[in-house]
Amino acid sequence: MEMQNVPYIRMNGGRAEVIKRDAITHIRGQALPADHETYTGILESLDNTIRPRGVGQGALSNAHGDWYEWMLALEAWNTAANNPDADLALLLPNKRRFDLSRLYSPRICGIITDLRNKVLQTGNISFVSSNPDFVILGRSVVDRVIPHLNPINMLSNDAIDTLDNSYLEFADQCSFEEIKGYISVKSSLRPDRRLQIPHEGSLMKAVYVHIQTREWIINPNGIKYYAISTAINDSDIEALNTVATHSITTVSSVPQAAVDQLFAANSPVEARAVFEQILLP
Amino acid sequence: MEMQNVPYIRMNGGRAEVIKRDAITHIRGQALPADHETYTGILESLDNTIRPRGVGQGALSNAHGDWYEWMLALEAWNTAANNPDADLALLLPNKRRFDLSRLYSPRICGIITDLRNKVLQTGNISFVSSNPDFVILGRSVVDRVIPHLNPINMLSNDAIDTLDNSYLEFADQCSFEEIKGYISVKSSLRPDRRLQIPHEGSLMKAVYVHIQTREWIINPNGIKYYAISTAINDSDIEALNTVATHSITTVSSVPQAAVDQLFAANSPVEARAVFEQILLP
DNA sequence: TCGCGCCGGCGCG
DNA sequence: TCGCGCCGGCGCG
């Protein structure tokens, strides 16, 4: 086992812990993922550097999630920076740290709080899903909040902090139509884990329909829910096409998928193609 | 590493594989879980016997799922065997091996197939969830199909085969009211993994409401969805109380939880208390 | 401290 | 063969 100190491993009571942000920036010398690289190849090469230092599989699994999200978030940011009409997909923290409905203006946020309370009072019923990995913000609110979006040219610690924290600037700022959708990201899928995604999509869409009803909005754009992974198969696609159950109880409504589309993105080129499809007007 | 052969490890190209059924029956000498034991204690002692033989954590994680399900299935079986009015909770295989709707009579099964096809045709929309771990069958169909339910007194390979395969006898046999509900079982929970359960519950309940509408059944009992784990906390309970989204779109319907109740069961005594609550009339 | 949301390594048919 | 559904070990605030 390598015993020199490296800045991205922290010893904690005899256990070697990965400092996720420092690991990817230090090992790769702040290099952006290059067009000839694959994301799974990058994850593997980070694993190969780190594993000999006594880091367990659970730590690497945990890190893969953030590393893949950061690499995607970077392409999403640059897509918006390079296209003045593009929407922006931003990373979100977990729901303990930030309640998603706070992105909306206080009026809309209040409707969601009211819905939650009313449903809760009818019998201890809640509205729980994980926070989606990304929110897609309409360009109008982006231009109000971050008028100058500078492209990111290095995967530095500062760049990662920007990708991780910019959502905070949008608190209270979004109108109903300015949250365009969400993206769920998984570096790999399993038949059980993938079902977390339609659960999230189904719930977000039901809340959206509720706001629409309460605000009597006649022809809204709808909310989009996307998913991205490094590799997908037909079973994954079918599972994510599962119906949003609020849309099938009555004959009058058209059945709607919980997840609008699942994309494979295992390289910067593929990621840019995805974001150009879902962020450009 | 222990190198004697044991009958519950299979070498497969240099990798030690656990034969799950043989491991629990052989190591425990077919003993039933005793009232003074905990399920997590039993899992731990099985781990401690098996791990030194070079079996990895992934294999043990996989085995924990089946071992815990078998120990619960045994108590459910005996609850029905010892109470002539009790419903029966039976293990189900995965959805590739058995399409759940086939438990219903062909008429009801046809309605579900029809729903799936119609929704599919409106835009490649599907109805995917994992099969629940258990189905709860009403005593009337149990009495028709297995008139003599013998208690299980040993955790033998034969007993496990009975627990695993008895569902097959109920194919085509259940009326609409004779499938009382489902149970999802997890030996441990995580904030992401637990959300697979409301997804399943929400989907099953939406399908149930659809059948009810199509068959114009005025006051059905409803379908119950339960969950069981060895240990639960308040966040788990709240997450599983998430609303079934089909029930909140219109003002007219009462919001309904996707999962009716989450139970902790870490011993035979606790498991019997759970099954007596949900299986006895 | 612990809640969050991450994901790989399984046994089996 | 591969699809299914299993679950522990994380880094972080």
Brief description of this entry?
The structure is a homodimer of 281-residue chains. Chain A is α/β, with parallel strands linked by helices.
Overview of the structural elements:
2 copies of one chain form a homodimer. Chain A has helices spanning 20-27, 39-50, 57-82, 106-121, 139-145, 157-165, 196-215, 234-240, 268-279; strands at 9-12, 15-18, 88-91, 134-137, 179-186, 224-229, 261-264. Chain A is globular and about 65 Å long. Chain A has 281 residues and is of the alpha/beta class. In chain A, helix 3 crosses helix 9 (268-279). In chain A, the strands form 2 sheets. A 5-stranded mixed sheet of chain A has the order 3-4-5-6-7, with helices on both faces. Chain A has a two-stranded antiparallel sheet with strand order 1-2. Helices cover 42% and strands 12% of the residues of chain A. Chain A has 2 domains: 9-65, no CATH class; 67-279, Restriction Endonuclease (3-Layer(aba) Sandwich), CATH 3.40.91. At the A-B interface, helix 7 of A face helix 7 of B. Chain A binds a DNA duplex (13 and 13 nucleotides) through residues 10, 17-20, 55-66, 69, 93-97, 130-131, 133, 186-193, 196, 233, 235.
Topology:
The structure is a homodimer of 281-residue chains.
Chain A lengths: L8 E4 L2 E4 L1 H8 L11 H12 L6 H26 L5 E4 L14 H16 L12 E4 L1 H7 L11 H9 L13 E8 L9 H20 L8 E6 L4 H7 L20 E4 L3 H12 L2
Parallel strand pairs in A: 5-6, 6-7
Antiparallel strand pairs in A: 1-2, 3-4, 4-5
Chain A binds a DNA duplex (13 and 13 nucleotides) through helix 3.
